[in-house]
């Protein structure tokens, strides 16, 4: 049983990891293997109907690296566990991250086998980071990539994240708010996103507020007078069209009190039919400037249908499908050793082979700015195109400008616009070409022969 004095630190600190990472630190130390190692995080393939992924989560990953240290409670638990020797304990007591990190900036379009993040640090330290780095990058990339599809499906629409309550944990919900903002969402209902990152937050009202009243019209009036700057009325608790007529009826009263109706929200039913009828009621009642917001079980497919059918909905609140990435909730991603002591390293497991060494990705565009192809090669190769991995951390310190959220949002908008048209569609398309350099292919093959002990090894 863990002593209560340890629980808070263990739930939030560096020991929030897999046991095998600690086992590996001990084993590396016992073997005297503490030289520099290079690990890379990448996605092996695209899930479901995805045609691309978006890089996200870098800010949280770098913050984790800056906090690489154990406090007294964590050290006490390690000591009390009896699992580790004094060499391990001394090493962990002095643990810091003083390495280098290169990464694709947040908002960059990513394709299979391209390194999104590269860590160079002493082998035990770089190994220890694996679980948490994957956890942070995976969560943000899954949601950012789902949100990007929604942004492409409903261009120009006001998209808001409503997903915290259905997210797989509070941290995932909060990171989802940030990831969806990078991908082009306009705001979130998740409150800490504003003080933490300046993301606009928005909220309407609950069905329970209306149900608690004996009269729906009075509920609207009470809410408007309580929240005069947030008067978006939820109108589908009983009868959507009747509620819209009540909004029209109370609008002059509220206007006389200096309160403007900022919108109505429909959370159920046939959105196509209801939005048309509500739009007519509002327009006929002199509220043509009042937007209609829809929510309730929406995903990118339903967004596209609404846009294609030209339904008069101005904005969408999207929850479960976004924060859980319902159709593709996980990435086949990895964080693998690519170099140790200056020597190339490669995994040869069937279906999980890796490209060895420190790598770079170069992206080529046509004259109109549309992505044409990527080249994956060794970092020191000279290839045409724009290099995507940039230095983001040196000697354990984050480089200035690395985690600018608005820059990431602007970058994502440019990247989505630069995707070949076929990749902007929701349906799976012919894969985007990622070519592997001849030198990387040759070195990978040479290394494979050597590791397998083939007679042809050179």
Automatic annotation (TrEMBL):
It comes from Limimonas halophila. Residues 159-341 form the Nicotinate/nicotinamide phosphoribosyltransferase domain. The keyword Chaperone does not apply. Transiently phosphorylated on a His residue during the reaction cycle. Phosphorylation strongly increases the affinity for substrates and increases the rate of nicotinate D-ribonucleotide production. Dephosphorylation regenerates the low-affinity form of the enzyme, leading to product release. This is Nicotinate phosphoribosyltransferase. Keywords: Glycosyltransferase, Ligase, Phosphoprotein, Pyridine nucleotide biosynthesis, Transferase. Pfam families: NAPRTase, NAPRTase_C, NAPRTase_N. Its EC number is 6.3.4.21. CDD domains: NAPRTase_A. Pathway: Cofactor biosynthesis; NAD(+) biosynthesis; nicotinate D-ribonucleotide from nicotinate: step 1/1. It catalyses: 5-phospho-alpha-D-ribose 1-diphosphate + nicotinate + ATP + H2O = nicotinate beta-D-ribonucleotide + ADP + phosphate + diphosphate. InterPro entries: Aldolase_TIM, N/Namide_PRibTrfase, NAPRTase_C, NAPRTase_N, Nic_PRibTrfase-Fam, Nic_PRibTrfase_pncB, Nicotinate_pribotase-like_C. GO terms for molecular function: glycosyltransferase activity; nicotinate phosphoribosyltransferase activity. It comes from the Bacteria. The keyword 4Fe-4S does not apply. One of its GO terms (cellular component) is cytosol. GO terms for biological process: NAD+ biosynthetic process via the salvage pathway. NCBIfam families: NAPRTase_put (TIGR01513), PRK09243.1-3 (NF006696), PRK12484.1 (NF009131). Belongs to the NAPRTase family. Residues 15-137 form the Nicotinate phosphoribosyltransferase N-terminal domain. Catalyzes the first step in the biosynthesis of NAD from nicotinic acid, the ATP-dependent synthesis of beta-nicotinate D-ribonucleotide from nicotinate and 5-phospho-D-ribose 1-phosphate. Residues 386-441 form the Nicotinate phosphoribosyltransferase C-terminal domain.
């Amino acid at each position: 049983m863990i002593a209560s004095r340890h629980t808070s630190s263990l739930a939030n600190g560096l020991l929030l990891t897999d046991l095998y990472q600690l086992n590996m630190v001990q084993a590396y130390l016992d073997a005297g293997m503490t030289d520099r190692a290079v690990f890379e995080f990448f996605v092996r393939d695209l899930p479901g109907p995805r045609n691309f992924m978006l890089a996200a989560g870098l800010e949280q990953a770098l913050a984790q690296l800056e906090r690489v240290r154990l406090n007294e409670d964590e050290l006490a638990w390690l000591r009390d566990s009896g699992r580790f020797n004094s060499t391990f304990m001394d090493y962990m007591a002095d643990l810091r991250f003083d390495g280098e990190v290169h990464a694709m900036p947040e908002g960059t379009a990513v394709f299979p086998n391209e390194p999104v993040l590269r860590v160079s640090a002493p082998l035990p330290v770089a190994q220890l980071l694996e679980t948490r780095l994957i956890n942070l990058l995976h969560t943000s990339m899954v949601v950012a990539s789902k949100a990007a599809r929604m942004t492409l499906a409903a261009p120009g629409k006001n998209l808001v994240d409503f997903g915290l309550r259905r997210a797989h944990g509070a941290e995932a919900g909060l990171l989802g708010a940030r990831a969806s903002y990078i991908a082009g969402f306009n705001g979130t209902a998740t409150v800490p996103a504003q003080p933490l990152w300046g993301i606009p937050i928005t909220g309407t009202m609950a069905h329970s507020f209306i149900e608690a009243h004996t009269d729906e019209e009075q509920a609207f009036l009470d809410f408007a007078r309580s929240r005069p700057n947030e008067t978006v009325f939820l109108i589908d608790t009983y009868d959507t069209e009747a509620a819209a007529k009540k909004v029209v009826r109370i609008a002059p009263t509220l206007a006389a009190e200096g309160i403007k109706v900022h919108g109505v929200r429909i959370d159920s039913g046939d959105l196509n039919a209801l939005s048309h009828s509500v739009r007519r009621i509002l327009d006929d009642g002199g509220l043509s400037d009042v937007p209609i917001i829809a929510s309730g079980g929406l995903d990118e497919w339903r967004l596209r249908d609404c846009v294609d059918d030209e339904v008069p909905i101005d904005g969408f609140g999207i929850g479960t499908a976004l924060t859980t990435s319902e159709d593709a909730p996980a990435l086949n991603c990895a964080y693998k050793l690519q170099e140790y002591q200056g020597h190339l390293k490669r995994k040869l497991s069937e279906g999980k082979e890796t490209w060895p060494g420190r790598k770079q990705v170069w992206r080529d565009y046509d004259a109109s700015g549309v992505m044409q192809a990527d080249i994956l090669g060794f970092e020191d190769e000279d290839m045409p195109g724009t290099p995507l991995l940039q230095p983001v951390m040196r000697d354990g310190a984050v480089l200035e400008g690395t985690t600018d959220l608005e820059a990431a949002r602007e970058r994502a908008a440019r990247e989505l616009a630069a995707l070949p048209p076929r990749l902007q569609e929701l349906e799976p398309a012919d894969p985007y070409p990622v070519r592997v350099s001849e030198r990387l292919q040759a070195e990978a093959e040479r290394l494979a022969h050597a590791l397998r002990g083939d007679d042809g090894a050179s």
